[in-house]
Amino acid sequence: MQEIKPTSPGVKRSNVSRLWQEAGSKFVQELRSRGLASTTWCALMLDGIRLSKEQTAVVALGVDDQGRKHVLDFALGSSEKGMSHLLLKLLMVSLVMT
């Protein structure tokens, strides 16, 4: 991807935002489509992270047999308490099906 400098003349904020959305979407698609079976997993950790007053992310991390941590998946919700059970179930289903 080309380096984007939002303060450069002729670069609109909407163009920068669109490019970031495209890059983010591609990253998430690659993250969720990779196979997990070829790695020996020693631990699975699920944790809620408050991103803002209104938004929480539940993140699934795996620890491989070398002790390295890997982000396996994540889900966004409106609050950690209200969404955590649903998000955890969704993450577990998506990880099992990978």
UniProtKB/TrEMBL annotation:
Top-rank taxon, per record: Bacteria
Molecular function (Gene Ontology), one example: DNA binding
Pfam families assigned to the protein according to its UniProt record, in alphabetical order: Transposase_mut
InterPro entries noted in UniProt: Transposase_mutator
Keywords in alphabetical order: DNA recombination, DNA-binding, Transposable element, Transposition
Coiled-coil features, chain-numbered ranges: none
Family indicated by similarity: Belongs to the transposase mutator family.
Function: Required for the transposition of the insertion element.
The protein, known as: Mutator family transposase
Upper taxonomic lineage: Bacteria, Pseudomonadati, Planctomycetota, Planctomycetia, Pirellulales
